[in-house]
């Protein structure tokens, strides 16, 4: 029983491992939190789909230390991002900035959603073709004719 | 309205096809990192020399005078650098350029041994033990090579070893265009 409890407990409470090493961590918890927030959004340039926060690459560690240094020196978060973008380009940010070259990227989901809504409204607003009640006079006449001719046949 | 709607599948296919065609382009490298430093003046830095190498260290000042310069980022622990080294030696001998080396995150003694063994094509070698200058240059991994104009503007950035036809063709093209730009043939 206890075995299973421990198993479930460990599965439920796993936390992602971070590459931040003890000697990197700042004494000031506020600055450290800001450094962590920034490093989650910065791409490691060696292992490209990993943020530097979880990367063990040498450059990632250098960048983490650099971010902390800049924060200690009094930079704002935006200034730190600017510093990195000036050297590695927008590419290092996981969240691309809002500027003319990225308008399409940011707006595409809304454009597609809008297109879908317009298409849906158009389809739904078309008059549904309901079947009419009963038969038209012509149809009734044809039908009567057929039934009539049949019953005449039966009678004979 | 119906007419417009009927062309919609065609439009979607064309747009999607266009993207896919673009994605198939063999020259496109999805891992390529754009370099924002192109067209900018080299970062402010000064690197100390390495004892026993026989050439001076260098910094922004050296890169802002003279002719076209190549700045190569290398390390003794980097295997592709070893492969590239012969090419650099030939390049430095053949082309009318000064080759500078940033020794990236390397023990100076290892760098000195490495250059003694493999030969030293560099006009200046600076030790970037902490990797800070590498970050200033937007280096993501060694080796990388930059082409710097006579007045210290970064004109070309090549990531990876200068080995193989494709790499040499691209780099040669970069060098040719750099020369064209400064009006020298």
From TrEMBL, chain A:
<keyword id="KW-0732">Signal</keyword>
<keyword id="KW-0812">Transmembrane</keyword>
<dbReference type="InterPro" id="IPR038297">
    <property type="entry name" value="CcmH/CycL/NrfF/Ccl2_sf"/>
</dbReference>
<feature type="region of interest" description="Disordered">
    <location>
        <begin position="130"/>
        <end position="156"/>
    </location>
</feature>
<feature type="transmembrane region" description="Helical">
    <location>
        <begin position="103"/>
        <end position="124"/>
    </location>
</feature>
<keyword id="KW-0472">Membrane</keyword>
<keyword id="KW-0479">Metal-binding</keyword>
<keyword id="KW-0349">Heme</keyword>
<keyword id="KW-1133">Transmembrane helix</keyword>
<protein>
    <recommendedName>
        <fullName>Cytochrome c-type biogenesis protein</fullName>
    </recommendedName>
</protein>
<feature type="signal peptide">
    <location>
        <begin position="1"/>
        <end position="19"/>
    </location>
</feature>
<keyword id="KW-0408">Iron</keyword>
<dbReference type="Pfam" id="PF03918">
    <property type="entry name" value="CcmH"/>
</dbReference>
<dbReference type="InterPro" id="IPR005616">
    <property type="entry name" value="CcmH/CycL/Ccl2/NrfF_N"/>
</dbReference>
<feature type="domain" description="CcmH/CycL/Ccl2/NrfF N-terminal">
    <location>
        <begin position="8"/>
        <end position="146"/>
    </location>
</feature>
<comment type="similarity">
    <text>Belongs to the CcmH/CycL/Ccl2/NrfF family.</text>
</comment>
<comment type="function">
    <text>Possible subunit of a heme lyase.</text>
</comment>
From TrEMBL, chain B:
<keyword id="KW-0201">Cytochrome c-type biogenesis</keyword>
<dbReference type="InterPro" id="IPR004799">
    <property type="entry name" value="Periplasmic_diS_OxRdtase_DsbE"/>
</dbReference>
<keyword id="KW-0676">Redox-active center</keyword>
<comment type="similarity">
    <text>Belongs to the thioredoxin family. DsbE subfamily.</text>
</comment>
<dbReference type="InterPro" id="IPR013740">
    <property type="entry name" value="Redoxin"/>
</dbReference>
<dbReference type="InterPro" id="IPR036249">
    <property type="entry name" value="Thioredoxin-like_sf"/>
</dbReference>
<keyword id="KW-1015">Disulfide bond</keyword>
<dbReference type="InterPro" id="IPR017937">
    <property type="entry name" value="Thioredoxin_CS"/>
</dbReference>
<dbReference type="InterPro" id="IPR013766">
    <property type="entry name" value="Thioredoxin_domain"/>
</dbReference>
<dbReference type="Pfam" id="PF08534">
    <property type="entry name" value="Redoxin"/>
</dbReference>
<feature type="domain" description="Thioredoxin">
    <location>
        <begin position="36"/>
        <end position="180"/>
    </location>
</feature>
<protein>
    <submittedName>
        <fullName>Thiol:disulfide interchange protein</fullName>
    </submittedName>
</protein>
<dbReference type="InterPro" id="IPR050553">
    <property type="entry name" value="Thioredoxin_ResA/DsbE_sf"/>
</dbReference>
């Amino acid at each position: 029983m206890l075995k299973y409890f421990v198993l479930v407990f460990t599965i439920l409470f796993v936390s992602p491992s971070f590459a931040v090493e003890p000697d990197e961590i700042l004494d000031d918890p506020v600055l450290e939190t800001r450094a962590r927030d920034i490093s989650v959004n910065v791409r490691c340039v060696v292992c490209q789909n990993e943020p530097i926060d979880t990367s063990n690459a040498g450059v990632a560690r250098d960048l983490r230390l650099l971010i902390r240094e800049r924060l200690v020196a009094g930079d704002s978060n935006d200034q730190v991002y600017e510093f990195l973008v000036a050297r590695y380009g927008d590419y290092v940010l996981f969240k691309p900035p809002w500027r003319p070259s990225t308008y399409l990227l940011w707006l595409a989901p809304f454009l597609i959603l809008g297109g879908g809504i317009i298409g849906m409204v158009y389809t739904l607003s078309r008059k549904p073709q309901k079947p009419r009640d009963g038969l038209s006079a012509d149809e009734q006449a044809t039908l009567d004719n057929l039934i009539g001719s049949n019953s005449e046949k039966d009678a004979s | 309205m119906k007419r417009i709607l009927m062309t919609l599948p065609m439009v979607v296919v064309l747009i999607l096809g266009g993207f896919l065609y673009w994605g198939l382009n063999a020259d496109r490298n999805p891992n390529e990192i754009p370099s924002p430093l192109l067209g900018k003046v080299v970062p402010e830095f000064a690197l100390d020399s390495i004892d026993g190498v026989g050439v001076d260290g260098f910094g922004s000042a050296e890169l802002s005078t003279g002719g076209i310069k190549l700045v190569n980022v290398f390390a003794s622990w980097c295997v592709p650098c070893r492969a590239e080294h012969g090419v650099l030696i030939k390049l430095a001998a053949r082309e009318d350029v000064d080759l500078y080396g940033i020794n990236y995150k390397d023990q100076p003694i290892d760098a000195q041994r490495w250059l003694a063994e493999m030969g030293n094509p560099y006009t200046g070698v600076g030790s970037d033990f902490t990797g800070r200058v590498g970050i200033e240059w937007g280096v993501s991994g060694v080796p990388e090579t930059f082409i710097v104009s006579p007045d210290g503007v970064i004109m070309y950035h090549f990531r990876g070893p200068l080995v193989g036809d494709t790499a040499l063709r691209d780099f040669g093209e970069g060098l040719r265009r750099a020369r064209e730009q400064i009006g020298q043939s």
